[in-house]
TrEMBL record:
Protein name as it appears in the record: Fumarylpyruvate hydrolase
Keywords: Hydrolase, Metal-binding
EC number: 3.7.1.20
Domain Fumarylacetoacetase-like C-terminal: 27-231
Species of provenance: Methylorubrum thiocyanatum
Length: 231
C-alpha cells in the first residue's frame, strides 16, 4: 500500500555526543512556571500549572557552536522570546507517581517557546485557543539533547537569554514553581504520556520582543547553549 501524498518527515532531535537520534511525538508546554514570570504576566504564582501544546514540526533544531537563522513569522509585530528547559521522555505512562516521575525523563535540552504575543493576547481577550500565538512555524527552537544518564537531572542552575549580547532573561531552575517530576506526574493524569514526548517546562521573567536582524543566545547551565539570528 502506497501513501497518496509524500510521507511527512519524522521529527527527531540530535543527542549530544552521539550519532543516535531522539524521535519526537508530542510537544507539551507549561505556562507561568517561574514565580517572577507569573507575576509579570499578571497571574497568581499559587495557581496550579496549566498546559498547552505545540505541533512537533514547530521544532527548529539549533546546533551548538553555530548561529542558526530563525524566520520572523507573519501576522505579528510583537514576537517574544521565552527560554526554557526542555525535558524529553524516554518512558511513558498514565497516573505516574511524582516520586518516580523523574525516571521517565531521558534527557534535557535548551529550548525557546517563541510567541506571537499580540495574537496570544487577543486570544486571551476573546477566550479563544492560543495556537495562532504559540504554534507559528519553527516557533520551538531547541538544542541537542543531553541524556540524564550523563548530566543527571538538573534541579538548579542559571537559565539565561541575551539579545545582541544584552541579557534579557535570567533565572535559576530551582525557581520553578512546579518541578519537572511534578509536571510529568500531573500531565500523566490528563494524557497517557509516551516515549518521545517533550515538555517545555516554563520560562523565567524578562520575556520580551525580538526584531529582525537581532541574535538571541540562550543558555542553561549544565545543559547547553544555542544562538539564533532572526531574519
Amino acid at each position: 500500500m502506497l501513501s497518496v501524498i509524500p510521507n511527512p518527515p519524522r521529527i527527531t532531535l540530535p543527542i549530544h555526543g552521539s550519532t543516535d537520534l531522539f524521535p519526537v511525538r508530542r510537544v507539551y508546554c507549561v505556562g507561568r512556571n517561574y514565580r517572577a514570570h507569573a507575576r509579570e504576566m499578571g497571574a497568581d504564582e499559587r495557581d496550579p500549572p496549566f498546559f498547552f501544546l505545540k505541533p512537533a514540526d514547530t521544532l527548529q533544531v539549533a546546533p551548538e557552536g553555530a548561529t542558526l537563522e530563525h524566520p520572523y513569522p507573519p501576522r505579528t509585530e510583537n514576537y517574544h522570546f521565552e527560554v526554557e528547559l526542555v525535558a524529553a521522555l524516554g518512558r511513558g505512562g498514565r497516573d505516574i507517581p511524582v516520586e518516580t516521575a523523574g525516571t521517565h525523563v531521558y534527557g534535557y535540552a535548551v529550548g525557546l517557546d517563541m510567541t506571537r504575543r499580540d495574537l496570544q493576547d487577543e486570544a486571551k481577550r476573546q477566550a479563544r485557543p492560543w495556537e495562532l500565538g504559540k504554534a507559528a512555524d519553527l516557533s520551538a527552537p531547541i538544542g541537542p539533547l543531553r541524556p540524564a544518564g550523563v548530566i543527571g537531572h538538573p534541579r538548579s542552575g542559571a537559565i539565561t537569554l541575551s539579545v545582541d549580547g544584552s541579557e534579557r532573561q535570567r533565572g535559576d531552575l530551582c525557581e520553578m514553581i512546579w518541578s519537572v517530576p511534578e509536571q510529568v506526574a500531573l500531565l500523566s493524569t490528563y494524557f497517557e504520556l509516551q516515549p518521545g514526548d517533550l515538555i517545555f517546562t516554563g520560562t523565567p521573567s524578562g520575556v520580551g520582543p525580538v526584531r529582525r536582524g537581532e541574535t538571541m543566545s540562550a543558555r542553561i547551565e549544565g545543559v547547553g547553549a544555542i544562538a539564533l539570528k532572526v531574519v
